[in-house]
Fold Crotonobetainyl-CoA:carnitine CoA-transferase CaiB-like acyl-CoA transferase.
Amino acid sequence: MTTAPGALAGIRVLDLSRILGGPYCGQILGDHGADVLKVEPPGGDDTRTWGPPFKDGVASYYHGLNRNKRVQHLDLSDPAERDKLLALVGQADVLVENFKTGTMERWGIGYAQLSERFPRLIWCRVSGFGADGPLGALPGYDAAVQAMTGLMSVNGEAGGEPLRVGLPVVDMVTGLNAVIGVLLALQERHKSGQGQLVEAALYDAGISLLHPHAANWFMDGRVPGRTGNAHPNIYPYDTVRTATDPVFLAVGNDRQFAALCRVIGVPELAAHADYREAGGRSVHRDALKPLLEAALAKFDGRQLVDDLMAAGVPAAPVLAVDAALTHPHTAHRGMVVELEGGYRGVGAPVKLSRTPASYRHAPLTPGDAFLAAPDAG
């Protein structure tokens, strides 16, 4: 585990956000070296209660989003506490917040009120729908945004009910978008010397995730439906049965399909007029799937995955969360982090050769002032 300065060493981040999108943004910035000071209300971030499980009264949900930060508590409805915050804002390069629109303005500490006073500050606002427009300023939560941006409509079994994606994908992508926006603004500040407002809205993130369904609809006007585990545009890109465990096939081109057919002993399928090209396989998927599963019925799923991967065919076992987190390759990639005190979490997925991520502060580390020097850029 490296202790070398990260790519964002020297950047000071004031994280005023709660729940998921904003805290996830702050954690990523912290993993890559930024000095992140999180300011929570006296009762703490709401997600401290989002359990079980709990450790010392704090839910795992909170622990998963708030490492590499130091935490203090301020009641921003109190003018004296707001003065303490302003002292920190004056030292920060980046401020991340997701207050309900108008709340910080009512306290006299909104972006428009502070941008002239702190012209280099990059202000990252995470919200449900943005500040204006037909849905502007309304509260947004991940599942509700999944429902209204079309994500639920394409998730689930064909003929079944719409389903929420089984993880907070909209919140997490919003957090990633916030990180991208902050990095773009930091890069631009090197040229202009000026900060700016960065907006990352859950609604925008949900709409942005609609590929390829949006692209399909723009081209042919047909409303996409649910296809279960199968890809809407290519096949076989689906879960299939074997003699033992199901496996996922991710065949993306004709060469891979021919290799698949060769490995499972049905090379004639690769030459069939309906299946030899990608478009035909997608159109005739209802006929192709049972033919593949009939051939797969004599194969052990785990061994088949190894054989297919060796032949250049993307395939995978369908693993549960515990199996994925304890897989040898997960450890090899540094995707599980352990810190003193019993903290374990998911590691940083972006790897930099000279300035890798580091893990310096477990969640709930106290702090009331910035540690790092301000950005010199």
In short: The mean pLDDT is 95. The longest strand covers residues 35-40. Residues 169-192 form the longest helix (24 residues). The chain is about 35% helix and 15% strand.
